[in-house]
Design brief:
It is an enzyme of class 2 (transferase). This protein is α+β, with helices and mostly antiparallel strands and 299 residues long. The protein has six helices and seven strands; from the N terminus they run H-H-H-E-H-E-E-H-E-E-H-E-E. The termini are far apart.
């Protein structure tokens, strides 16, 4: 092989090496650009105007467009959440005073000397006002939870003070129906948001009192290695097996209890709270003998 051929081969080799190095440099530059885009997106500072699109590869350009669209979508979601937050605050504020007035005037009318038919109407007005107040309060709380306006803050704590506060809250209501509301002492701990878990337990205890005509409501807690279980047992009417999977649905009410007070939101709200803490609720019931709601909380 003559010298000219060797030179040509060497030049071809050097050219090929230069092309490979250039391509590698281009790929590395593209990856660095994409990495910068991701870092900016993660910190919420991404803007497509920060990049000179003429210097980007097709991949970089498409990725920049994607991140720009994602950033715009994120801003839209934040704006919609702000609108929902304002709407919920307006509903809560604007309905609080009228409902409070309805309850107040109903109570004043109940103290007046009225015909039997008028007294019945006043009592119905009072009960419906209470029902409306409970419904609006529950829906506002639920909407705040579902839209992330209120976030749960679970912390490890003893269950005994939580359970004692729920018993104290409902002792008078149970006594009015001549029911025994009992709490079994416990040294169990769990990870939960004290305020919102109390709300969930209160809804379950309120239902137990509502659907129990005589007997006992017992609250207890058991500790396991990975979780703690709270049991709320009653001697009420019980729940048919065919309906046990339905009672946690929003606004679900069995035909057998349609004549009793309630709106069908309490158990749904309780389940949303407990699941938001990493726990869950299950029910065991025998019609005519009572029900046990078990709340499982992580430790």
């Amino acid at each position: 092989m003559n010298k000219t051929g060797i030179v040509i081969i060497l030049l071809c080799f050097l050219a090929a090496a230069a092309v490979v190095l250039w391509e590698r440099r281009k790929v590395r530059k593209t990856m660095e650009e994409i990495e910068r885009m991701l870092d900016a997106a993660m910190t919420g500072s991404f803007s497509e105007t920060n990049f000179d699109e003429s210097r980007l590869s097709a991949l970089e350009t498409k990725f920049a467009h994607y991140l720009s669209a994602a950033e715009a979508s994120s801003r839209n979601v934040a704006q919609e959440k702000d609108k929902i937050k304002t709407l919920i605050a307006d509903i809560s504020h604007q309905t609080k005073t009228p409902i409070a007035n309805l309850l107040l005037y109903s109570e004043l009318l109940k103290e007046e000397t009225l015909p039997a038919s008028a007294k019945a109407n006043v009592e119905a007005l009072y009960k419906q006002s209470e029902k409306l107040r409970f419904l609006i309060d529950s829906l506002v709380k639920l909407s705040r939870l579902e839209n992330g306006i209120i976030s749960l803050s679970p912390q490890q704590a003893a269950l005994q003070p939580l359970l004692e506060s729920v018993v104290e809250q409902y002792a008078a209501k149970a006594s009015e129906k001549r029911l025994s509301l009992r709490l079994q002492d416990t040294d169990a701990f769990a990870v939960f948001d004290s305020k919102w878990t109390a709300e969930a337990l209160a809804n379950i205890v309120d239902n137990a009192i509502k659907y129990t005509e005589h007997g006992t409501i017992t609250i207890s807690a058991v500790s396991y290695e990975m979780f703690a279980r709270i049991d709320i047992s009653d001697t009420g009417s019980g729940i048919p097996e065919s309906e046990q999977a339905k009672i946690f649905a929003r606004f679900y009410r069995s035909n057998s209890v349609q004549k009793q007070e309630g709106v069908g939101i309490g158990l749904y709200l309780a389940r949303q709270i407990i699941s938001g803490e990493g726990g869950y609720i299950k029910v065991a019931s025998v019609p005519g003998k009572g029900s046990t709601f078990s709340i499982f909380l992580p430790k």
